[in-house]
Write a structure and sequence with these properties.
The complex is a heterodimer of chains A (239) and B (296). Chain A is an all-alpha fold. Helices cover 81% and strands 0% of the residues of chain A. Chain A is built from eleven helices and no strands. In chain A, helix 6 packs antiparallel against helix 11 and helix 10 packs antiparallel against helix 11. Chain A is globular and about 65 Å long. By secondary structure, chain B is of the alpha/beta class. Helix content of chain B is 34%, strand content 28%. Chain B is built from eleven helices and 13 strands. In chain B, the strands form three sheets. A six-stranded mixed sheet of chain B has the order 5-6-7-3-8-9. A four-stranded antiparallel sheet of chain B has the order 11-12-10-13, with helices on one face. A three-stranded antiparallel sheet of chain B has the order 2-1-4, covered by helices on one side. In chain B, strand 1 and strand 2 form a beta hairpin. The relative contact order of chain B is 0.14. Classes of the chains: A mainly alpha (239), B alpha/beta (296).
């Protein structure tokens, strides 16, 4: 199993998609942190640090896109045939991809968080705003949890839909259209949906569920998509 | 050893592979022949666990492919139109396979050498020609030093030297006591490589025999043209020689000796305008077996 996870990580390192995602993420983090710090009214409020670092909330979205590319991408490029020749047991393949995606999600978080802290440190230093390490951790650490979970969610989604573009379109349609409508009409239902849960994992203040509960329900989604994706991968002919 | 038992694959009402049974022995190169669309690729993919049979089953060394503990070390497969991630280098592609299959990394450079891809190994696959991709696929098949090789139309995209190289390589591979099963839609292409052939058409096995037996089917004939074709036909029939009337005064006598046909014609006072001994080629046999022979 370790070998399979290492192979999946090697796949991630040997194409440009993961690097491209990381660069896109870093651009957003640098831009957002700079604009926030530059336009911040002095004296800054007590949550200035966490507000400035909140661009790391984009990490889960980039992580799920990575997960989709790592799973549906195999169908997109036809490499799924070769992959299944080496690892014919679908459960093992999906399992290895889940673990590898969570690791890549964590790595995306690490580079984003590091840059966010550097940008924040430079701007706050220049403007004389104190950097609050505890406040920073309260924003950064939940994003790590969310990044790992959402990367794994992307793997399952990719195996269910197998279309890279289809899965990404479905993801954004779900998050920004379906969940917005449900949130407006049925807020009690919305809190059980992935986007609503993501909000609870990231923000403690206006949460419906506590962070551990929200993370566990998200994990249930990860498991459900992975199980359905594996079952479909077992049944589906690869031609 | 590869074994297919009553393999059947239906797509809706279309039967792609129909109750196909055969065994492929070790120590020999076995050809898998059939016209395009005969079901070769579907059969190979069922052997490899990529396509689920509607019924029947397929084993390699007595085990279904998905049950093999280390498949890459047992079976090497070259799929038709092998797909690679265009942005990954050939060498990195092989490294991902080697890593997953627990194969030491030095083996990657060895197989790159074997297929003569070392010079371009670090280039991205999207810059490769079809022949280079095919050789990369062969390199992947060899990574685990397997004792069974399955190749789906491996000659596609290879240049004449490449085809020759592949032929010699497969021969020596089988000579080591290993199993080679190679598909093609052109008999001539693999006639010099294979010991025996399994021929399928419309998903059904139509012949499974040694190449010698196939060659024996290449019946000889004598083509004659005569303004007195009907009379010649009777004379030949009297001598116990079967003929086929192919129209416009032309006959094909089912006999090897053109001398004999000429003598009979002379003895019966029949004028001949043409007398040619011809043997049908292996390709004719193949076309006849698969029912794809062109009308005369």
């Amino acid at each position: 199993m370790t070998a399979l996870v290492l192979a999946e990580l090697l796949k991630a390192r040997t194409t440009r998609s993961a690097v491209g995602l990381a660069l896109g993420l870093l651009a957003i983090v640098a831009f957002f942190g700079s604009v926030h710090a530059a336009t911040l009214d002095l004296p800054a409020d007590t949550h200035a640090t966490s507000d400035n670092l909140s661009s790391v909330f984009f990490v889960p979205v980039f992580a799920i896109i990575f997960g989709i590319l790592a799973s549906a991408g195999e169908y997109r490029h036809g490499t799924i045939s070769q992959t299944l020749l080496v690892t014919p047991v679908r459960e093992k393949l999906v399992g290895a991809k889940l673990v590898a995606a969570a690791i890549v999600g964590a790595a995306l978080w690490a580079v984003a968080a590091a840059l966010a802290v550097v940008v924040c440190g430079i701007w706050f230093g220049a403007r004389g705003i104190p950097f609050d390490a505890g406040d920073a951790a309260s924003t950064l650490l939940p994003a790590l949890l969310a990044a790992a979970l959402w990367a794994a969610l992307g793997i399952g989604l990719g195996f269910v839909l197998t279309s890279q573009v289809g899965a990404i379109v479905a993801l954004f349609a779900w998050l920004f259209v379906v969940e917005s409508i449900v949130e407006g009409l049925l807020p009690r239902v919305h809190r059980f949906l992935p986007g609503g849960l993501l909000n609870d994992v990231l923000h403690a203040d206006d949460a419906d569920f506590s962070r551990p509960v929200a993370a566990l329900i998200t994990l249930a989604y990860v498991a459900a998509f992975a199980v359905v994706g594996t079952a479909l991968a077992r049944r589906r002919d690869v031609t | 050893m590869i074994e297919a038992r009553s393999l059947t694959k239906r797509y809706g009402s279309t039967v792609a592979v129909d109750d196909l049974s055969f065994t492929v022995p070790a120590g020999a190169v076995t050809g898998f022949l059939g016209p395009n669309g005969a079901g070769k690729t579907t059969t190979l993919r069922m052997l490899l666990g990529l396509v689920r049979p509607t019924s029947g089953d397929a084993t390699i060394g007595g085990e279904r492919y998905v049950r093999l503990p280390r498949p890459a070390a047992r079976v090497g497969a070259v799929l038709e139109a092998s797909a690679f991630h265009p942005g990954r280098s050939g060498r990195n592609h092989l490294r991902t396979v080697a890593t997953a299959a627990d194969i030491p990394e030095r083996r990657v450079d060895e197989v790159l050498d074997v297929v003569e891809l070392t010079a371009v190994a670090r280039r991205r696959v999207k810059t490769y020609s079809l022949g280079m991709r095919q050789r990369l696929a062969i390199a992947q098949a060899l990574l685990g030093d397997p004792d069974v090789l399955l190749l789906d139309e491996p000659a596609n995209g290879l240049d004449p030297q490449g085809i020759r190289w592949l032929r010699d390589f497969l021969r020596s591979y089988a000579a080591d006591g290993r199993t080679v099963f190679v598909s093609s839609h052109v008999l001539a292409e693999i006639a010099q490589t294979v010991d025996s052939v399994a021929i399928i058409n419309r998903g059904k096995l139509v012949a499974h025999e040694s190449l010698m037996e196939v060659r024996a089917r290449a019946v000889a004939g004598v083509r004659v043209r005569s303004p007195q074709a009907a009379r010649l036909r009777e004379a030949l029939a009297a001598a116990g020689i079967e003929t086929t009337d192919v129209g416009e005064g032309r006959l094909v006598a089912r006999i090897e000796s053109s001398e004999r046909v000429g003598e009979i014609a002379a003895a019966n006072g029949v004028v001949l305008h043409e007398l040619t001994a011809e043997s049908s080629s292996l390709e004719d046999v193949f076309l006849e077996l698969t029912g794809e022979s062109r009308p005369q």
